[in-house]
Amino acid sequence: MTAVESVGEFRFECGESVDDLRLAYETYGGFDGDNAVLVCHALTGSQHVSNAPRSEDHDADAVDGSDAGDADTGTGVQTAGQARAWWDDVVGPGKAIDTTEYYVVCVNVPGSCYGSSGPPAGGPDGEPWGTDFPPVTVGDWTRAQRRLLDRLGVGRLHAVVGGSVGGMNALDWAKRFPDDVRRVAAVATAARLDTQCLSLDAIARRAITTDPNWNGGDYYGADRPNPDDGLAQARRIGHVMYLSKASMGRKFGRRAAGRGAFGDAPADPTDRFFPYREVESYLDYNADSFTSRFDANSYLYLTRAMDEYDLSAGYGSDAEALAAFEGEMLALSFTGDWHFTVEQARALADAARDVDVPTAHHVVESDHGHDAFLVEPESVGPPLRDFLADGVDGRAVRDEGDARDESDGSGSHSGGPDRAPVHASLFPG
Amino acid sequence: MTAVESVGEFRFECGESVDDLRLAYETYGGFDGDNAVLVCHALTGSQHVSNAPRSEDHDADAVDGSDAGDADTGTGVQTAGQARAWWDDVVGPGKAIDTTEYYVVCVNVPGSCYGSSGPPAGGPDGEPWGTDFPPVTVGDWTRAQRRLLDRLGVGRLHAVVGGSVGGMNALDWAKRFPDDVRRVAAVATAARLDTQCLSLDAIARRAITTDPNWNGGDYYGADRPNPDDGLAQARRIGHVMYLSKASMGRKFGRRAAGRGAFGDAPADPTDRFFPYREVESYLDYNADSFTSRFDANSYLYLTRAMDEYDLSAGYGSDAEALAAFEGEMLALSFTGDWHFTVEQARALADAARDVDVPTAHHVVESDHGHDAFLVEPESVGPPLRDFLADGVDGRAVRDEGDARDESDGSGSHSGGPDRAPVHASLFPG
Q: What is the helix, strand, coil percentage profile of chain B, to 5?
């Protein structure tokens, strides 16, 4: 059950305001005053993090999850499509983020399309905001979450956990509200996006804005076609960013799919001698289902927020940005991830240590790429569970520095800092 | 001076034929009967490999390079745009491929748009072929080149040198005409494309075919707009593939470009708070100039040929495909190249050695990415020069296996096969 809470007038970092910011969220478990864990979703994720039983409803407009989007946005965006709980293997009763122990809160970020205020949601005149919605930043997300938690009666958080751009959101908590959070788990993330990923995001946005159906962002209404071609292209590009070269090769190789395996591909006469490959079919299938669950303008807004995020902004460095944080930090990275690299997580952990934040950089050997944090609960769960329980001293929490004292080289990390970092050369330099 | 030669009826591997295949080519230096070097261009390259003085014209339609395209294609494709000689630092008098010593031939591949038969060139009815042009393969390129060399009186080649898909073209010579070439230099290439690159090529093609101006491939004629948005997107994607993460970061970082630095970007209201970054400006600028020099259908055709190429096709393995080749092979790879990786070049070299082809795998430490073979003549020139002169025993030719016997670890390679290959983990696994 998704609830929607109005948190009143909200001024965004860009300087623009909305009179009534609405936030869609879900909570799991019971609040005991000291056990709140905020989970931050990734780019196209939603508040629906788990299929675990929800908490008792608060004083908010409780709406059924499968209707939340339609009811709230007035558009055809099928938020029902978000029904898949995106971290169900990690969050729930008895799971790593144990909802019998913690009060878990997950909020759909402003600018998204799962019931919170954003481009496809109804604006002051009842019509969808479209691109009149204020540009959003990760900082806006953090401030909006703070506002919602106030309404829920949550002061200090036990922990903030987030993956990918949700990990930036988690880092932003340590920077913006350093007294409000005890433990920050930044999963598959970085202090900022690198140039290569900025480029691919810009290309993805361009795919949307050059789709004639995008129409300057004004495509809502039953009689207008959505910019599905552009959004599908953006998703294909994103999808490649989420997978590793190795995992793509292992999964699909160069195999041909059956002709017409995915029927909607535009006719291309140059196809007549060449195969439609399984990997293309896979990307097409996923892009197609993505267009039925996500809004093109929201994709523009949220990638902008991700691109713009820079932990050091307003400070001289990442370290200074974290200097006021008195909690502990876990940076969890994956060797096959080229979207957010091990090297970036190492730099983040080093910055935190520079200002005496107790920090562990836990490296998971994986060739699943960026997706690893979603598809390898067996790797992600134990360190998260123990970090929530015992901080950086948690039993399953490994810091890559620990490896220096190990002669057998076993363990889940790729090597100590004195060794050539195996994946610093993911892209060399 | 580009010449255009008709090589008569040509049956493509797909089974379709054209009555009169025309090939645009350039030659440099004088032919002494035993000194011919065929240089194979990359995806969007042309026959114009060097600004060196051209050979005496042969019995062919000699046309001025700057007009070749317009005259021959009947379209607005500005083949004048190819005027930049793409390997001028490597090919010319006194350069690595020395045109005072070798007779250098470079042929625009069928399917391309620089004067050879292809989609934008005039078909039997004088109208551009468009997508009625037969799908082409790398094997077709090789066979067409063989036909042209026959006309030029060249029997056995001293060497074939090619980079990127031009390197596949070079490998195809060793497989298809094993007696016709003494030395094959395969630069920044592989026996086949990997799944990740297949995906990105498919996404690039989709950008073209979903551009409404593509119009099923029928966009020629002064009154029709070209699918420039789609072709520009394809080029942006390609451009990211050609650069390394490290070089992009070093060159551009996250810096903002001046507003309006490139004026043609479509208005995106979500821009209003966010910078237009230097890297985006760079990609836009290059994509824009690309659309004025290349044809969208040719891009579809040539990426298809690249994707489809598989050295082992028709044989049980890469090694068997090379078994009849009695010459020598140089595989030249670059540590920062994730389009064609060091690991792929190593596998290629191993396959050649398996069938007793004298082979060197020369690894260049570079973070320039795939572009390294074009922008680092100082790295590429010496091994190429000495390989052409003395084969794998050439002085500047280093095989990565040599490193095993060196204690100081110096040299241009990344490590011997017994060490963990530094860039096998470019994408781990």
A: 40, 15, 45
For domain B2-193+308-405, which CATH number applies: 3.40.640.10, 3.20.20.70, 3.90.1150.10, 3.40.50.1820? Answer: 3.40.50.1820
Binding-site members of B for substrate are: 235, 371
Residue A24 main-chain phi, psi, to 5 deg: -90, 135
Alpha-carbon distance B67 to A353, whole Å?
63
pLDDT value at residue B410: 40
3-state secondary structure of A98: strand
Q: Per-residue confidence at A422, pLDDT binned at 50, 70, 90?
A: very low
Burial label, A254 (beta-carbon count in 10 A; 0-12, 13-18, 19+): middle
The shortest CB-CB distance from A135 to any of B245, B273, B427 is to B273
The CATH code of domain A197-305 reads: 1.10.1740.110
Class of domain B197-304: mainly alpha
Per-residue pLDDT tens digits for B313-322:
999 999 999 9
Give every residue of chain B whose pLDDT is below 50, as ranges. Answer: 58-60, 62-81, 261-263, 404-429
Tens-place pLDDT, residues A150-166: 999 999 999 999 999 99
**Partner residue opposite A195 with nearest CB, options B198, B248, B307:** B248
Distance from CA of B2 to the nearest CA of A (A): 28
**Binding residue numbers of A:** 235, 371
Question: Are B202 and A283 in contact (CB < 8 Å)?
Answer: yes
Residue A35 C-beta-side C-alpha neighbours within 13 Å: 15
Contact flag B217-A273 (C-beta cutoff 8 Å): no
